[in-house]
Input
Amino acid sequence: HLVPHLYLGYNLSYCLLDENEMLPPWHRDPAVQRYKLLMKSRRSGFFDVEEFQVILDHFMFLLDIPEASEVLDKALSQHPGSQELMLRKADLALINGQAEECLRIINQLQVLHPTDTDILRLKAEALASIGHTYRAIEIYESISRSDREMNPVSTQMRLAQLSAEVKGPLDAIPYWQAAIEIEQEFSLAYSELEECFENADLLEEGMRYFSSLTDESPYNFLAWSSLGSCFRLADRFTEAIDAFGFAMVIDVDSNANKVQMAFCFYQLDRYEESLVLYSELHTSDPEDPSHLCCMAECLEQLEHLDLAEQKYSACLALDPEYADARLGLAIIRDIQGEEVNAIRHIETAVGLEPENSEYWLVFARLLSKNKQDKRCRLAFERCTQLNPEDLEGNLLFLDHLLGHEEYDYVLEKVQNALQLIGNTPELYLRAIKALHETQRRDECSALIELMVDTHEGSLELLRDYNPFMFEDAEVLSLIKNL
Output
């Protein structure tokens, strides 16, 4: 319940909302009430600059821009020389998408107040809005060096955001770190830093940084949480659990950390511990369907299929369009041998999230088991279109094609997959089988030699994948000479 007080959307000068009415304190300010009464009776009245600013704040909070503009016109007619009101006029112009008008007003104000921080901030925002982001960064840099800087955390935040926009996440990192140095409990900086370290492929650096914060301040809840997130993103789940555990000791009611820890337990196949945490989360927030779905997944892994089905159904009762629950029911029905019902559930999931390649892969596999070959091929095609770098999806599709003797298409798909996924022996195995089945001996032998040269132990993979090839005298002769 925090809203911007001035310079809507990018200033950190926040004002707490009134707990009873969920509106800011100025909602009941006498100036606001008097102004409304005067407008209702179509009369005019005098207000000082401070009162006009309170009235402006009221209408800006309500996002009533036309009324705010009318208030500002009245205010400037009574106080034409007010710098504060001219600044608000520039701010309103920027909010209305009139950046050039905003800059015109700002340039006038700068003649008399060239180093005023509020004026410089608004100028930087106007420049950024029309694409002059580097100039905006320069202005914010000068503000950060000013002795008159009144809101250094806000300045570092904007520098980070603007730098990430035009330079990338790596350049944003120092600014978010500077914001934390100024205000250790600035939670946004921690979450943004996590994302920057991830996007810049610097998770190790992120771990070192957040670990240094916990060394300096062992009760820094945000640092422990961010440290855990970096470990989780790096698939170091055991260390992530330890970090989230420390965070939860500091704040036992942190559901966000509980979710993260439950996820890590699940990835480590510690399903019972994961289930306990998801159950606690469901107890604290029974209207959230995601917890029920996660509980069901844990129960499914523990082979308590009846209980898992109950949780998936409860999840769908809360949210009939929760696609993951449909996926879970499809898997359970498949395990129980109810292939038709399984297909029905996965069809619903695909309809709900048609861009989810995982759903299409499960759909294709179920269609294959049910001998619906044409639909199966279409599902595989869609899966690999959505996620062309998914090795499992490509391999299963290739096996499907091999089973239907579409050897030329297999070779085409393998060539494309090698470019996208990389030089993996599993792809070679499919191409070798296609070449062998079509009696393209020389190409088959050459590919076997290439696979053996580049992948140690790949001959055993070939034997497991296609043992019939080893009954071919020519293949055996080649292998002996490798």
Observations:
- Residues 105 and 163 are 26 Å apart (CA to CA).
- The two ends are 71 Å apart (CA to CA).
- Confidence is low (pLDDT under 50) at residues 1-21.
